Each structure stands twice: as C-alpha cells, then as structure tokens.
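Q:
Just now I want nothing more than another pair of eyes on a protein record. Here is the record:
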Amino acid sequence: MLKTVEDISATKKRLKIEIPAEAIESEIKRGLGEAQKRARIPGFRPGKAPMHLIEKKFAKDIEADVLEKMIPDYYIKALKEADITPVSRPVAEESFDFKRNEPLSMTVSVEVRPKIENLNYEEITVKEVPVDVKDEDVDEVLKRLAEERAAYESVEDAISVEDLITMDYEVKDDGTAANDVVLKVGSGPYPQEFFDGLIGRKKDEGLEITASFPEDLQSPFAGKKPTFKVKVKEIKRRNLPPIDDEFAKDLGFENIGLLQDKVKENILLSKNRDAERIKQREILDKLIESHEFEAPEGLVKAEIGSTVAEIKARGGNEKTEESLAEEIKPHAEKGVKASILLELIGEKEGINVSDDEVKEEIIETAQRAYVSPENIMKYYVARDGSLEGLKRTVFEKKVLNFLVNKAKIEKGE
C-alpha cells in the first residue's frame, strides 16, 4: 500500500510503498502448498513430504517468485492511490532486505505526467491555408518525370554544364595520369576552375587546364594547383523525351491529358496534406503557449538521444553529440509538451486507436516509402521494441485531426 508521496519536482515523485507481511506470507504459503503437491522427495509419497522439507528445498525460490509478482502489483496500486501517471520506469532509491513475516518497505522515484489545470482547447483559431494547383506546378512535375527517364546520348557539340564526358588526363607537374575518367560537368571532386576550362571545348581537342583545388575538397589534388593535359574522348548529353501522348503511355496513361489530370490530383493531395500540417503546427504552438508546465526530463533526454542517433546515422554532420544535444533540446522539449497535451486531450475526448487503424497506417506508410508493410513493422519494432510507438503516432494524428476540425478557421485577406 502507498505510505507517502513526496514531490521531488513538478514532474518527479518519490513513493514510499509497503507490502503487508501477512499478504506476502499468504502468497508464500500458497506457493509452498503448490510445491508440496508436486514435489518428489525420496522416502515420501508424492504430495506427502513434510512442510519443513518443502520449505528447506523450495522456500527461497518461492519467495523470489512472490516478490517478483507482488512488487509490480503494489507499485501499480500505489500509482492509482496517488493518482499519478508515470512516464518512465521507477528507480529504486535504496535496496531492501526481505525477511519473512515482516512488511516489505521500498522507496522509488518516478517521473510523472504533469497535471495541467484548466486544459483548454475549445476556442482555438487558425489561419486558413489557401490551396491552389497552377499549370506551372503540373508542368514542373511532368518535367521532373521526363528528366527521370532521360537518356544520355553522344553529341558532337561543344561541352556544356551537366554533360557527361569521358576523358584521359596527365598532370604535367608529376606525371600522374588516368584514362577513361567519366565526369559530369559541374559536379564531382573538381573545382569550378577546372570545369570552366572544359566548357565550350570539343571532343578530341587537346587542352591544358590549371586549377586550384581547395584544401577541403575530397580529392588527391586537395590544396594543390596542378596543370592537366586533357583529352576529351566522348561527350554525352541528356536527351529529355517529349512530353506527349507517347510519354504518357510509357507511364501507363492513355494520353497526356489523363496524365496531367493525375499529376494535378496528386499535387492537390500533397498540398492539402501540407496545409493540414501547417494548421496542426499552429494549433500545437498555441496549445503549448497557453499551458504552462514542465516537460519531464527523462522524456526530453530520450527524445534528444533518438534525434541525435538519427542525425549521426545519416552522416554528414561534424558536430559533437554534446553540441547537437544542446541544439536539439528546445525542439525536444516542445515535442514532449505537445505529446503530453495531445494525450490529455485524447483521453478527455475518449479517442482510441483500433488494430485496424494501426494496420492501415502501416500500409499507407509502406506505399509512401515504396517498401513492404513487413519492413515498416520491422522498423518500428527495432526502434521501439513493439508497435506501441506507431500506435501512439496514429493516436496523435487522430487527436490533431479532431482539433483541426474543431478549430475556427480565420479567412485570409
């Protein structure tokens, strides 16, 4: 039973819990009785061995099993008595020495969800986000689709930016040479000075290029100013397919008009999703601003750790974990506060998530990422140990949709 509750901070409590001696002893005796029925002890028929032998042989294991079950049970009862919602695992502040026929006392600290007085989300106003699809938006997507299907073809023209060239070179200073080097003009481990020496020149034209390579360039010539003798052997240029009915048919549409309609539909869906996200962010900002409370430190640290790990896994960031953590902290605190507010609102409104809704989210996420649903499930299980993280994501989406539908939309000028 709960003996005392002490505030360590606004988001941390110390609980002193006591399990009555008679409750423990009752469970131990029940366990010993079960052991007596099953025990096979030489010299005695099954179930007839005297209790003192059963105690001697099984008492320690049974005591451990009883405590393993009763401690969590009484901890959960104590949480209910104290009317607190934990957001982290309890930490035992001191070891305990169990003795038969004596009550077991334990002291634990636990981070808790802060209590928020006067939770208010009834009169939220958000700005309208206009959604419009222009012809230029459709043209841009069609051009991108064409670029994805473009093929490089040999040309006899002078070299231009983004051409793909094959060249041999020799460095005059030290004789370093390379053959059949393929290079996209304008990108790669060469300075702009080198590309400038190529642009406008033609195939089989002998040329010399002197270029300064910056110290930080990923190149064997970094920090040097070599002179190259270059021979361009081939020039290839990307040939964009015409955006016409044939192009549409290659993509599975009868004609270009139907492809344009589908592209417009997809753009509209995407812009509507973006508009919803903008309104959701505005709602969260207003909720956080209007409810003053402290974010539990453990949740903030977990959020920071997760974000830092993701950034490091992606690579390309030279900052230390400590500087990244400091940079991320305000965003992590805001994210934790948003989750707590959404949880409280969802509970108050009776919003729940069904297994079917979780499955639907898995399928939609898989389709957006072009992977199998099984891979999405593996990702969440690997990250969180279960699908609870995904279920929480679906829950927060539902609460946000509820808030957007409830909000008053302020028309623009």
Q: What stands out?
A: The radius of gyration is 34 Å. Residues 76 and 250 are 62 Å apart (CA to CA). The longest helix spans residues 256-290. Residues 151-239 form a domain with the Chitinase A; domain 3 fold (CATH 3.10.50.40).
